Amino acid sequence: MKIIDCHVHLGYALTRDEILDSMQKYGIEKAVVFAFPTEAAHDSRVNDLVLTQSRVAKVFIPFFYVMDDLKLPLSFEEFRGVKWHWVRGVAHMQSNLSVLIDPSFKSFVDKVLEADVPVILEEDFEFTVDFVAKAEGVKVIIPHMGLLGGSPKMFIDRFKNVEDVYFDTSLASSDVILESIKALGANRIVFGSDMPFGEQGRELDKILKLDIADDDKRKILYDNLAKLLRITS
Q1: Measured by CB atoms within 10 angstroms of the end CB, which terminus of the chain is less buried, N or C?
Q2: Which domains does the chain have, with CATH numbers?
Q3: How far is CA 41 from CA 91, 100, 192, in A?
Q4: Which branch of life, at top level (predicted)?
Q5: Separation between Cα atoms, residue 140 and residue 120, nearest integer Å
Q6: Strand 81-85 and strand 60-65: pairing?
Q7: Which residues are bridge partners to 60 per DSSP?
Q8: pLDDT tens-digit series, residues 106-152
């Protein structure tokens, strides 16, 4: 069964070789990689590091970590997506809704739509609802099934019928993942580990042990994200 990990941090605290060793150990074919929030806060070069390492490790799928200025670089065309993490807010505590009325937000959305890449959006529930409404057409992946932005059930219920909103499984419990599959189906759920905060093998095991059809496991572990990122091989 092919596997893509949708949620892996890459930087000074977790090196390319450490990630590759873990991927080989657990049979993971590709990984979406992006900067650590703590490193991004102090070093604007982290996106360059992610891109450089992804050029070497072709199994890496680089996502651009958005800074507070919302600017996308000239090299943005080399990134396959965006990681948005509590921009101008307080991580895991309070989002900053004023970002969504900043003129630079529209420019950001236009460029993301033009590139046709997904955004892994980690914010609280209210911000996420407003972001999806204002960034119509942008494909959004909510990490942790919404766990770190509020109640997973709130996120699932609100976005159940919004086809452009996906969920990654990182750090969510097996029960939450299973209930989400029952509510959504398997077509908009993707596997993620949140490595190193989640251990790849343990996070993968949660999916493999779910009492669901093998076809649904294939969708979650590979097919859904491969389709979203237009991966053909």
Answers
A1: C
A2: 4-228 (3.20.20.140)
A3: 11, 20, 23
A4: Archaea
A5: 6
A6: parallel
A7: 31
A8: 999 999 999 999 999 999 999 999 999 999 999 999 999 999 888 99
